[in-house]
Design brief:
By secondary structure, the protein is mainly alpha-helical. The longest helix is centred in the middle third of the chain and has 28 residues. The radius of gyration is 16 Å and the shape is elongated.
């Protein structure tokens, strides 16, 4: 198992963890029998936490496909690992900026993470074997 493979797991865990601030903030209002009740995710921290959570699900498929493609095409593993770690770190910052209501930083970090994902995806085209 490679570091990049573990980054796939880290991205999933980050997505799951990003909803926790909403549930912690509204623990009295949270109804586990109706966990997707849109009224629970009111504006503010809960809405931002849900946004970060949902964006994690949106970003993950491309990240997973890019890592798998790069590894299948024999891109040097150190390159894939470094880019995957950088992507996960950018996503951590993204979640922090989203939850703490810093939209400009959040958008900038989203762009960095997307660029890193593109680099992973296109790495087979420029990798030296």
């Amino acid at each position: 198992m490679t570091i990049a493979d573990l980054c796939l797991l880290a991205a999933v865990i980050l997505t799951i963890v990003s909803i926790m601030p909403a549930k912690r903030d509204g623990k009295r209002d949270y109804d586990n029998a109706n966990p997707r009740d849109p009224r629970f995710y009111t504006p503010g921290l809960r809405a931002r936490s849900l946004g970060a959570h949902m964006n994690g699900f949106e970003a993950f498929p491309f990240f997973a496909a890019a890592v798998i493609l790069a590894e299948m095409r024999a891109v040097p593993q150190g390159t894939v690992n470094a880019l995957a770690v950088a992507f996960v770190l950018a996503r951590v910052l993204y979640v922090v900026f989203y939850i703490t209501d810093r939209p400009t930083f959040r958008s900038a970090v989203w762009l960095v993470a997307f660029a890193l994902n593109l680099a992973i995806f296109f790495s087979p085209a420029w990798a030296v074997h």
